[in-house]
Amino acid sequence: MALQWPGRQLARWLAWWLLGVLVVVTGVLPPDDFAALAWRVGPILGFVASITVVVELATSAGLFDVVGDRIAAWGRHTGWLIWLLVVGAATVSTAFLSLDTTAVVLTPIVVLLARKASMSPLPFALTTVWLANTASVLLPVSNVTNLLAWHRWPVHPIGFAGAMWAPFVVGVALPAALVWLLYRRRLAHRYSPPPRHVAADKPLLVTSGTVVAALLPALVSGVPVWIPSTAAAVLLTAAFAVRRPGTLRPALIPWRAVSIAAVLFIVVQAAAAHGLTTAVLTLAGTGNGYPELLRLAGVAALAANVVNNLPAYLALEPAAGTPIRLGALLIGVNLGAIVTPWASLAVLLWHERVASLGVRMSWRRYSLVGLGLTVVLVPAAVGALWLAHGLPG
Fold this sequence. Notes:
Main location: membrane
Family: Belongs to the CitM (TC 2.A.11) transporter family. Belongs to the ArsB family.
Oligomer: single chain
GO molecular function, one term: arsenite transmembrane transporter activity
Pfam families: CitMHS (PF03600)
Number of strands: 0
Order of helices and strands: HHHHHHHHHHHHHHHH
Largest sheet: none
Structural class: mainly alpha
Number of helices: 16
Number of domains: 1
Radius of gyration: 21 Å
Shape: globular
Subcellular location: Cell membrane
Helix content: over 70%
Distance between the termini: 61 Å
């Protein structure tokens, strides 16, 4: 199959890789540091690529359309109930299948579901983009930043969830509460159930559902997450090769996201090797008390909204010397990444999806509302983390 690339996209992709190559070959990043970085992030990028293939193929099989049908049926003709079900679906999707799945796959499903039910799509779209970020602290697989942290703090995924459950609850409850306050009148709506989706290929739908159902517990089993995600991607690829080979194409692999993440890792690692770590330690402080944790989370949230949450995490990781400080850092770069469009890749992907569906929300309004939420959410989540760990102030 020939690989077809739009010229502008190819140019951007090559530019990112050229930057990474230049950093390496010019010696800005020492070879030993590059080898250590590749050993650390290679499996993470492999997981990102394979889980994306799984989600894309499951979407093509109609699995997430079935989820939308179930939400519509369980909503009992009530707007606020169908919205609560979307909150639950976005939370589960983010926690187990990553924030990008919620932003890219679930968003168009719930937007179209809202329109079929003659409801405003805005509260549904805002719910998915916020929860894609704010519900992404529970498990290692929820966010690439979590996978980076998991490498530094290799506990069982259940132990990871046990440490992060309190900020996770805050990260779901407060954004949902704000959406309700902003759009409660639009959600007070009765609807007729839309027509159910008819699967074009039922065997593929059943296969996809079975593979995803088996994948979810495997991702929290303690096995390196790239192993079950790769196995799931191989199984679904084989099924589509038999039933619908035309679906298989190079674009299933998220080349842009992987290349951008790889280069960001290289650039930040090079900066760390040339003095960034010292500056970061001074800025982020030390200590496990609430003020010190809030300071770290606040700096992390600011950095995420200025440059992006991936380089923000890598730059600030040396300041997270204890598990609770690592948790505060994740709160900042995950829950706090909802103000600027570039704070996380999921936000940009979300905006592409909703814009293509004709949903209009200006970046100015998005940023102002996100800022208002962040200044409440981050301190509350840090407080929940601190109280859950029972540490003195």
